[in-house]
């Protein structure tokens, strides 16, 4: 059976690297756990790092975090649907919001539960996902700052999540200025300017974060050590916290060109025939993992001597050429993972999850 390894030591070292960089610039941060898809074993590893604030986009995952450690501050990081407000208020201490109607519903539910619910108002800064338009922000705040059982603790933004708009110092200065305007107008303190996610970390490392920005929400860089500006591993971090192993379940020398009438496969793809390959053969390995678990484009083969040919729902097919490493049935093949690949694997109940 295919399995995923989480390397505890490398995760700890990535966490410590980021913790030190944030401390140097007096910036607080929370860890985004949505990649773990509620896996208790991995969530416990996260908590054992000493994390005191965890963010997630699934309420059921926040519930598991509260079961494991009720003292951790939990943050719900997408707009909540009306039918889930009760559960969200129960399990999330903080939520990201951009709709007046929703915040009013949250206020009523928080009153019912006898809680004060904290919110971060999300501000639109160009990527056109969630967020209040800047020229509406003062009026927006005016309608919520006195709502009962609601405490506005921050302004936040998301970039590079939909249209690929990258963060910049200018955009973050703009966010900080919104905070100053609101504080002056309403004589109310807003503790956080939450600059965003892992994509903003290169600005922090280059000391290009405005002084007013004092909070981050970090997932991908913690788990993959990646600089999302340059798509490279940050010096001092690890890109291989996660490793996927899949077993060879068939190994045969076969023609390189299919035979018969060619039609679209179940994925809607039609194979293009390379006539130069007629009459040639290669060793093909079938692995015990497929599209139900991961899209092959998010796999990073450790062995550069083979090619991923494609996948069906439950099997991944490799071209090993002449099989110079003499792979056999029963051997395992190792892959690194991109973020979306790890997300697919962790969301799959068919792949074992281990910690080493």
Automatic annotation (TrEMBL):
An annotated GO cellular component: cytosol
Cofactor: pyridoxal 5'-phosphate
Residue ranges annotated for the Alanine racemase N-terminal domain, each copy included: 10-224
Protein keywords: Isomerase, Pyridoxal phosphate
A Pfam match: Ala_racemase_N
Record-level Gene Ontology MF annotations: alanine racemase activity; pyridoxal phosphate binding
InterPro entries given in the database record: Ala_racemase (IPR000821), Ala_racemase_N (IPR001608), PLP-binding_barrel (IPR029066)
Keyword Isomerase: yes
PANTHER family: ALANINE RACEMASE (PTHR30511), LYSINE RACEMASE (PTHR30511:SF3)
Protein name in the entry: Putative amino acid racemase
Organism, as annotated: Cecembia rubra
């Amino acid at each position: 059976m295919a399995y995923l390894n989480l390397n505890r030591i490398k995760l700890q070292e990535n966490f410590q690297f980021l913790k030190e960089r944030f401390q140097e610039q007096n910036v607080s941060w929370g860890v985004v756990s949505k990649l773990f898809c509620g896996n208790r074993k991995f969530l416990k590893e996260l908590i054992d790092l000493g994390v005191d604030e965890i963010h997630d986009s699934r309420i059921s995952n926040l519930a598991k975090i509260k079961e494991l450690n009720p003292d951790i501050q939990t943050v719900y990081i997408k707009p909540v649907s009306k039918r889930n407000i009760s559960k969200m208020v129960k399990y999330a201490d903080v939520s990201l919001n951009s709709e007046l109607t929703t915040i009013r519903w949250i206020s009523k539910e928080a009153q019912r539960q006898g809680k004060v619910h904290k919110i971060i108002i999300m501000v639109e800064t160009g990527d056109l996902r969630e967020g209040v338009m800047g020229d509406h922000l003062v009026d927006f705040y005016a309608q919520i700052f006195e709502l009962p059982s609601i405490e506005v603790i921050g302004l936040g933004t998301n970039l590079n999540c939909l249209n690929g708009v990258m963060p910049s110092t200018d955009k973050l200065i703009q966010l900080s200025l919104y905070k100053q305007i609101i504080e002056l107008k309403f004589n109310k303190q807003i503790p956080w300017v939450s600059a965003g996610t892992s994509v903003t970390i290169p600005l922090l490392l280059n000391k290009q974060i405005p002084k007013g920005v004092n909070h981050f929400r970090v997932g991908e860089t913690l788990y993959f050590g990646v600089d999302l500006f340059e798509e490279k591993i940050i010096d001092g971090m690890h890109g291989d916290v996660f490793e996927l192993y899949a077993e060879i379940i068939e190994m045969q020398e076969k023609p390189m060109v299919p035979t018969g009438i060619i039609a679209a496969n179940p994925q809607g793809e039609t194979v293009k025939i390379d006539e130069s390959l007629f009459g040639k053969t290669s060793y093909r390995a079938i692995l015990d993992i497929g599209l139900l678990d991961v899209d092959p484009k998010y796999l990073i083969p450790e062995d550069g001597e083979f090619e991923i040919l494609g996948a069906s729902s439950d099997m991944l097919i490799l071209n090993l050429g002449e099989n110079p490493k003499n792979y056999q049935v029963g051997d395992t093949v190792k892959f690194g993972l991109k973020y979306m690949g790890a997300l697919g694997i962790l969301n799959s109940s068919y792949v074992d999850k281990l910690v080493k």
